């Protein structure tokens, strides 16, 4: 396994596809408030 901290960006071996799953907290306050009012 390669330690990435010891490499420069051209030396990093290519990886396969990356999946980014955005997650966060959304609390339900009802229809009178928009989403993300307290995050």
TrEMBL record:
InterPro entries hit by this protein: Creatininase-like_sf, Creatininase/forma_Hydrolase
Database matches in Gene3D superfamilies: Creatininase
Domain of life where this protein originates: Bacteria
Protein family according to the UniProt entry: Belongs to the creatininase superfamily.
Name of the protein this chain belongs to: Mycofactocin biosynthesis peptidyl-dipeptidase MftE
Short name of any one Pfam family annotated for the protein: Creatininase
């Amino acid at each position: 396994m390669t330690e990435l901290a010891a490499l420069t960006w051209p030396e990093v071996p290519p990886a396969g596809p990356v999946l980014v799953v955005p997650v966060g907290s959304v609390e339900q306050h009802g229809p009178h408030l928009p989403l993300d009012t307290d995050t």
